[in-house]
Design a protein that fits this description.
There is one protein chain. The chain is an all-beta fold. The protein has one domain. 0% of the residues lie in helices and 53% in strands. The strands form five sheets. It has a 15-stranded mixed beta sheet that branches. Strands 1-4-7-10-13-16-18 form a seven-stranded parallel beta sheet, with no helix packed on it. It has a four-stranded antiparallel beta sheet with strand order 22-21-24-29, with no helix packed on it. A hairpin with a 4-residue loop joins β21 and β22. The termini are far apart. About 6% of the residues have low confidence.
Length: 287
């Protein structure tokens, strides 16, 4: 056993400062792992944080700079915290030993499937940079708040989003960029609207994706960390009956945080599409 912290029972961490380097998992529980606070810097040879039955993060500053899978549990719940994950496989993985693992793809956007391992996103901030699936959820996803940013895979055998149940978004901000082979989007059971963009060619890292309303109000400006061919966006600023313009390239004077540029002016990009939202899920084809 080469886990840095391993328990046969449950673990509750309230606070503290942890600088962890491990050959296997950083923090692992054979039952439930609950993180309520603290500061974590983890470089792991396997999972960054793992709860066999469940993994719950209610608070804390978590930086997983190296992992195979960043956060993993049979059920994964994010209720708070500031989380950054780098993974060679899945960024967040909700699965059990009997579920099919990452790389298998899932049903088309808006269609549910089977699976009993859910992911609940309740609030605060999650950034994932994954070589495999960004979110690999073997069950349903419920996003009711917070921000999820995913720089997903560049190869086509994984996707920025991969679930086998409904992906229901009722609030929060979601940006997921990645390859096209296994691309998915939130389900049409969502109450908050989403946009899925499929480009005809791969665009290089750092090429800005900018979405604005027809009145000029910015919805999101995002700078992907890797090459990409698909983008999924969900935001409280995306509404039915409102017209939007999608731009690619250009520059922004905004301040960058995990790829999102805010508080500045976007300029110089090429318009890819202009459309009015009529459905919960809108798919855009662009060059």
């Amino acid at each position: 056993m080469d886990d840095a912290i391993n328990a046969e029972g449950g673990i509750i961490v309230e606070n503290g400062v942890f600088d962890i380097q491990s050959f296997e998992s950083g923090i692992k529980s054979d039952l439930n792992l609950i993180v309520n606070g603290g500061t974590y810097t983890i470089a792991a040879g396997n999972d960054g944080m793992h709860g066999e039955t469940s993994l719950t993060v209610n608070g804390g500053d978590i930086t997983i700079s190296r992992s195979v899978e960043g956060l993993e549990g049979a059920t994964v719940t994010i209720g708070g915290g500031n989380i950054h994950v780098v993974s060679s496989d899945d960024g967040i993985n909700a699965s059990s030993g009997t579920e099919a693992g990452g790389g298998g793809g899932g049903p088309p956007p808006g269609m549910g499937g089977a699976g009993n391992n859910p992911f609940y996103m309740r609030g605060r901030h999650v950034y994932v940079n994954a070589a495999g699936d960004g979110l690999d959820i073997n069950g349903p996803v419920e996003m009711t708040g917070g921000t999820v940013l995913v720089d997903g895979p560049t190869e086509n055998f994984n996707g920025a989003l991969d679930d086998t149940g409904e992906f229901k978004v009722t609030a929060g901000t979601l940006v997921a960029v990645g390859s096209a082979g296994m691309a998915m989007a939130p389900s049409d059971s969502s109450t908050q609207c989403s946009i899925g963009v499929a480009f005809s060619s791969v665009h290089s890292a750092g090429t800005l994706v900018h979405l604005r309303r027809d009145d000029g109000r910015e919805v999101i400006t995002f700078s992907p960390a890797k090459s990409f061919q698909t983008v999924v966006l969900s935001s409280p600023l995306i509404h039915k009956g409102t017209a939007y313009q999608l731009y690619l390239g250009g520059a922004s004077t905004g301040t960058a945080k995990d790829g999102v540029l805010s508080g500045g002016v976007y300029y110089g990009g090429s318009q890819q599409a202009e459309f009015t939202i009529s459905d919960t899920i809108t798919i855009i084809r662009a060059s």
